[in-house]
Specification:
binds flavin mononucleotide; 21% strand; 5-stranded parallel β-sheet; single chain; alpha/beta; Rossmann fold; 171 residues; 8 helices
């Protein structure tokens, strides 16, 4: 199977997961890792399976990822899965369903088989800490707990979980 792992990243977290997924895919398939900005709709049409990754931005997929999903070509038989990183420790299934809605809609409209979405924690870039702490209205203590929890993610365990996700889909 020809597999594309493509991703948008600003601080490297989603890229880390993309690499883990691509390494897993490359064990048994022809797998390529490409930044989202290097992929055209024509390129994307040439793969049997696409993993597309995004950081969570204000409770949604990042804008370039949504644009890419809009531009992707109808491709019956093609498969697609998502992966998302976010600073929050985890989200309820209901919220995840909201975040992945553009992915599922693109697949439905373009006759692409949706294969699910992986998500994990990814530390928030330090320059945004003050702003987010204020926005969430957290005390210094509460924020320190949150920072402690997110620091180091995605870690080896997150990468392992991402590999297991890819392995299951590609089996
Ligand atoms: C503009 C912006 C908005 C964000 N909004 C959220 C959010 O709503 N929920 C969340 O858990 N993380 C949010 N984050 C944190 C990122 O999703 C998280 O740090 C992610 O791992 C960054 O991935 P990257 O390093 O691949 O860019 C936001 C980050 C930025 C820059």
């Amino acid at each position: 199977m020809k597999v594309l792992v493509t991703y948008f990243t600003q601080s490297g977290n989603t890229e880390k997961i993309a690499k883990a997924i691509c390494e897993q895919a490359a064990l048994n398939h022809e797998a390529e890792l490409k930044k989202l900005e290097d992929v055209t709709p024509d390129d994307a049409a040439g793969y049997d399976m696409i993993f597309i990754g995004s950081p969570l931005h204000s409770g949604a997929l990042a804008a370039p990822v949504k644009e890419c999903l809009d531009a992707v070509k109808a491709n019956p038989g093609q498969k697609m899965a998502g992966f998302i990183t976010h600073f929050a420790p985890g989200y309820p299934e209901q919220d995840m369903n909201g975040f992945t809605e553009p992915l599922r809609t693109a697949c439905r409209e373009k006759e692409i088989e949706y294969q699910g979405c992986f998500d994990c924690q990814g530390a928030l870039t330090e320059s945004l800490h003050d702003m987010v702490q204020k926005k969430l209205n957290l005390t210094d203590e509460q924020w320190a707990d949150m920072v402690k929890q997110m620091t180091g993610h995605p870690d080896g365990g997150d990468e392992e979980n991402a590999r297991a996700f890819a392995e299951k889909i590609l089996a």
